[in-house]
Amino acid sequence: MKKKESKSPSLVPAKPEMTLHTDASEYLPGESVDAHANLEVANELIGRKEIGQQHNNL
C-alpha cells in the first residue's frame, strides 16, 4: 500500500531556532507597569525563601 502524502506544508521550519519571549517589551513604561514588575520580582524572592525554608525543614 502507498502512504498518503501530506499536501499541507510542514509547521516545523527548515532551520528551527530557540528564542526568548518576554512581555517586558510589549507594554509601554509607566507607573502601573513598573509597579507590576516590582511585584513580580518581590514574589519571586519570597518564593525562593519559602522553598529554601521548606528544604531546610526536611
How would you describe what is shown here?
The protein has one helix spanning 31-56. By secondary structure, it is an all-alpha fold. The longest helix is centred in the last third of the chain and has 26 residues, at 31-56. The mean pLDDT is 77.
Alpha plus pi helix count: 1
Structural class estimated from helices and strands? mainly alpha
Radius of gyration over C-alpha positions, nearest whole angstrom:
23 Å
Shape: flat
Task: Give the proportion of residues in helices.
Answer: 40-55%
Strands, total number: 0
- Average predicted confidence as pLDDT: 77
Output the helix-strand order. H
Low-confidence stretches: none
The percent range for strand residues is under 5%
Please give the alpha-carbon distance between the first and last residues. 60 Å
Biggest sheet details:
none
List the helices and strands and how they pair.
Layout: H1 31-56
Write a short abstract of this structure.
By secondary structure, the chain is mostly helical. It has one helix and no strands. It is flat, with a radius of gyration of 23 Å.
What would the keywords be for this entry?
45% helix
